[in-house]
């Protein structure tokens, strides 16, 4: 067994940045304007009507103090560089080379309102990355406006709405069909776009039956939205028949490629018959997803649907790149400008560094790593694999259940996730809603992780399961080696207990104190 | 939280010897004569051994002797015994014990549907129920899936009472055993009980919007009520889910019976099948149904007033089903069962139905013939 880490996170009694420093504290002292400047434009270049009357409330600290403050805060996190087999999120190394690339002035200092002639470099990257995604999916055009996977799913529903409106059938095509195991953003975005959502249940094979799909489809179906493999790691072998059944009633087909890692380079959404798909650049394509930071859901579709996409689209005209905004059938803006362009640049850098062969190999490694993991996890008493009767090998991740251990000890997936942080291991992903599998957890050992990392992760889990039997209280009250103990989820339901701004914090703190005094 | 325990020591006696139940002292005597061995006591011990393992010293208030205390002897639990007269061997014993346990917040009982009925009928309104499955018939939704699961659920509740959430819509169902022994299954819905929501399938609070099952049901019901067609007779079956459609249409539902609506007006309340059939003559009919918890019955459990003739008239397309996603997720199998008594009709109903789970939200569910 691997030597388990003895770990304790730093704990700083760190005030808010607004509470640090002193009046007059500054990070930068700017020189007074030279006489030549004041002679030309006066003492204050800001017109009187635009000058603010009060001073902005900003932290008054030195640059050094600001650095130290944020260092302390970062020391109280797991840093997104630990062993994090966070399923459905395809955790990858975010290369510093691509990070530095986006700090170059050609990306960092450009603005989408510039004339395209001054943006040729970044437009070329977007155009060429579009080409890379086209070759991976078989689609004819991509846009990068959506700010994440759910936003890309919403883009699909907006495109479908525009498409059916253009065909004069929007009044009839009112339904969207999906599976209960699809990511909840699919039903949610379809509902937001005004469609009635029809969910298919999982049946004996671990995926919905073709029969159920056919019963749900009709001339009212506007589109179907599917992911495959699903979060159980099960690949639906009937996927071609599914797409055909939807085509038979004239519906559009959307492939949510959230779980692309295990099949990238192996299949093409277009070859399977889909009309559109989406990739998450901040997951599969190596751009950072740290802490919910900027994301990109790359949305691609067939030439038939392309007129309905959000505008603008980057096009090549001769040897120049241009922004095509003249798209009268477009569904409109999904997000401002062209999306999170630095993420596109990082994903482009990843794809170019990997190459087609590298992408193929990464896909193979991710499936082999998960199957190695499945093999070892199956030997731990107290956990059970989802859909135990499915004998086909799982793809790049597998959903497991802690129900047997929970019944035996009262320790479930939430408690074990908390305890993992005591070993410096990032808490695991449990499951999207609804929890079809009780006490779920979903590890995903993608191509980044070494065998040593995977073994460490499993050994830590085995250790905690033993702790659950020997000393359940230790696990129930975890984490113990982290800067804060358990987060009380109920606080999220009570607006008086949280604040998004300094001003709101002050107001709510004063209200709480007044209430306490009364 | 105060937990009480009552065991029906003769529950389950009939099953192994082919008696389909153990209601009444004569049947108990017949079962014993055929060599039956009582199940309820040992199964109770299995459940409470799990609780004692997990939460040593947990406090339990129990009925004396074979009605409770005997089966906990030697377990690491803090047992308080309530005094009761000597047992008579009838259902009165269970009822008496539940009355003696009226201070308890949760009554754990070991038995089957008959016991569940007795406990539900006698309990204080605020008291929740949790059944240790011991009976021959267990159509009610109050039972844990196994004695160990019941013990584990108890341990969760004792260790973490703040996590307790109640569900007040659990069906108490039972079958008339005399008719069952004659070869027919005629279960009835006897009422609704309060049960603890078991946590295994519910995520801990983590922020974000919380799904409100009752709001989703009300949304589904409002949509169904809005889409009702003039001239069509709507039969609203028993239970809170179907009843929500009556409420959405502005009427008080008969929770344990079937109501009829035409053009927004109530034509009949708690009606029998003959009355319903005469109302359905010469006009289209649609049937609004809920689903029984955990078992997943659509027709043939508790709604026999909706006759084969009415079901055949409506057809599968005339069934309007509503249930919360939570209820569908908790079904033992992903199937809605029909048992109309007519195999040909059951076969005709088999296939898929769209269950309304919320406003503009549906779930495809397979309908299967139970027989």
Derived structural class of chain A? alpha/beta
Q: Helical segment tally of chain B?
A: 12
Tell me the CATH superfamily of the domain at 117-353 in chain A. Answer: Type I PLP-dependent aspartate aminotransferase-like (Major domain)
Named CATH topology of the domain at 117-353 in chain A: Aspartate Aminotransferase, domain 2
Shape of chain A: globular
Oligomer: heterodimer
Strand order of the largest sheet of chain B: 10-9-8-11-13-15-16-14-12
Q: In this structure, how is the largest beta sheet of chain A organized?
A: 7 strands, mixed
- Judging from the principal axes of the Cα atoms, what is the shape of chain B? globular
Q: Count up the domains of chain B.
A: 2
Radius of gyration of chain B over all CA atoms, rounded:
21 Å
Notes on the protein architecture:
The complex is a heterodimer of chains A (518) and B (371). Among the domains of chain A are: 59 residues, no CATH class; 237 residues, Aspartate Aminotransferase, domain 2, CATH 3.40.640.10. In chain A, 36% of the residues lie in helices and 10% in strands. Chain A contains 15 helices and 12 strands. In chain A, helix 5 runs parallel beside helix 10. Chain A is globular, with a radius of gyration of 26 Å. Chain A starts with 34 loop residues before the first helix and ends with a helix. Chain B is α/β, with parallel strands linked by helices and 371 residues long. Chain B folds into 2 domains: 199 residues, no CATH class; 157 residues.
């Amino acid at each position: 067994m691997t030597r388990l880490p003895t770990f304790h996170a730093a704990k700083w009694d760190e005030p808010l940045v607004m509470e640090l420093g002193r009046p007059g504290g500054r990070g930068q002292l700017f020189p007074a304007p030279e006489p030549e400047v004041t002679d030309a434009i006066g003492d204050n270049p800001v017109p009187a009507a635009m000058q603010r009357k009060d001073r902005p409330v900003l932290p008054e600290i030195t640059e050094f103090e600001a650095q130290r403050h944020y260092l302390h805060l970062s020391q109280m996190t797991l840093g997104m560089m630990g062993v994090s087999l966070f399923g459905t999120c395809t955790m990858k190394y975010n290369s510093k080379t691509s990070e530095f690339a986006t700090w170059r002035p050609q990306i960092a200092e450009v603005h989408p309102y510039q004339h395209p002639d001054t943006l040729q470099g970044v437009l070329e990257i977007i155009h060429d990355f579009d080409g890379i995604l086209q070759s991976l999916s078989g689609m004819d055009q991509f846009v990068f406006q959506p700010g994440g996977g759910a936003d890309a799913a919403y883009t699909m529903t907006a495109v479908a709405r525009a498409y059916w409106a253009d065909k004069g059938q929007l009044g009839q095509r009112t339904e969207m069909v999906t599976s209960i195991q699809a990511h909840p953003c699919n039903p949610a975005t379809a509902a937001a776009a005004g469609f009635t959502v029809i969910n298919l249940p999982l049946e004996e094979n671990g995926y919905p039956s073709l029969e159920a799909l056919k019963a749900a489809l009709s001339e009212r179906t506007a589109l179907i939205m599917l992911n495959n493999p699903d979060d159980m790691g099960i690949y639906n072998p009937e996927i071609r028949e599914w797409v055909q059944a939807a085509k038979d009633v004239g519906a559009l087909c959307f492939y949510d490629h959230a779980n692309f890692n295990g099949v990238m380079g192996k299949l093409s959404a277009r070859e399977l018959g889909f009309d559109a798909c989406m990739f998450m650049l901040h997951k599969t394509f190596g751009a950072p997803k740290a802490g919910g930071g900027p994301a990109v859901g790359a949305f691609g579709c067939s030439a038939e649907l392309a007129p309905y996409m959000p505008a603008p689209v980057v096009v090549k005209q001769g040897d120049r790149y241009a922004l095509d905004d003249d798209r009268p059938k477009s569904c409109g803006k999904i997000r401002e400008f062209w999306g999170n362009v630095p993420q596109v640049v990082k994903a482009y850098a990843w794809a170019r560094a990997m190459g087609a062969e590298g992408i193929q190999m990464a896909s193979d490694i991710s499936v082999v790593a998960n199957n190695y993991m499945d093999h070892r996890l199956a030997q731990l008493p107290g956990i059970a694999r989802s859909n135990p009767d499915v004998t086909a090998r799982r793809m790049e991740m597998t959903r497991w259940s802690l129900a047997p251990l929970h019944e035996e000890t009262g320790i479930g997936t939430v408690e074990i996730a908390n305890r993992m942080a005591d070993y410096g291991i990032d808490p695991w992903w449990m499951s999207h809603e609804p929890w079809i599998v009780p006490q779920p957890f979903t590890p995903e050992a993608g191509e980044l992780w070494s065998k040593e990392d995977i073994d460490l992760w499993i050994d830590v889990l085995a250790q905690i399961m033993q702790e659950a039997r020997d000393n359940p209280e230790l696990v129930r009250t975890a984490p113990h080696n982290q800067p804060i103990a358990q987060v009380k989820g109920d606080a999220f339901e009570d607006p008086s207990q949280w604040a998004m701004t300094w001003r709101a914090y002050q107001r709510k703190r004063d209200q709480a104190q007044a209430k306490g005094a009364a | 939280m105060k937990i009480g325990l009552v065991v029906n020591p003769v529950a389950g006696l009939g099953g192994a010897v082919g008696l389909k139940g153990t209601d009444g002292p004569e049947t108990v005597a017949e079962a014993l004569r055929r060599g039956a061995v009582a199940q309820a006591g040992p199964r109770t011990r299995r459940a409470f051994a799990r609780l004692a393992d997990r939460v040593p010293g947990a406090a339990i208030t129990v009925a004396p002797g074979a009605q409770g205390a005997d089966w906990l002897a030697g377990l690491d639990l803090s047992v308080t015994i309530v005094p009761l007269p000597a047992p008579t061997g009838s259902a009165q014993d269970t009822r008496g014990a539940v009355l003696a346990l009226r201070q308890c917040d949760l009554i754990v009982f070991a038995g089957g549907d008959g016991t569940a009925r007795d406990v539900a009928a006698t309990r204080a309104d605020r008291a929740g129920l949790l059944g240790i499955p011991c009976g021959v018939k267990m159509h009610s939704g109050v039972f844990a899936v196994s004695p160990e699961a019941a013990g584990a659920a108890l341990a969760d509740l004792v260790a973490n009472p703040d996590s307790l959430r109640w569900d007040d819509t659990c069906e108490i169902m039972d079958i008339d055993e005399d008719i069952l022994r004659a070869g027919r299954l005629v279960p009835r819905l006897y009422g609704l009980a309060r049960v603890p929501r078991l946590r295994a399938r519910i995520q801990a609070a983590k922020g974000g919007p919380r799904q409100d099952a009752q709001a989703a049901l009300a949304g589904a019901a409002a949509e169904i009520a809005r889409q009702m067609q003039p001239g069509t007779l709507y039969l609203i079956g028993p239970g809170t889910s179907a009843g929500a459609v009556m409420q959405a249409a502005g009427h008080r539902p008969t929770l344990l019976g079937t109501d009829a609506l035409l053009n927004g007006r109530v034509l009949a309340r708690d009606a029998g099948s003959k009355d319903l059939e005469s109302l359905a003559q010469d006009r289209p009919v649609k049937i609004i149904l809920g689903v029984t918890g955990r078992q997943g019955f659509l027709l043939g459990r508790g709604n026999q007033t909706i006759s084969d003739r009415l079901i055949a008239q409506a057809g599968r397309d005339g069934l309007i089903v509503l249930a919360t996603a939570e209820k569908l997720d908790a079904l033992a199998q992903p199937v809605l069962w029909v048992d109309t008594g007519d195999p040909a009709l059951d076969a005709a109903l088999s296939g898929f139905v769209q269950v309304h789970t919320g406003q503009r939200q549906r779930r495809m569910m397979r309908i299967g013939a139970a027989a």
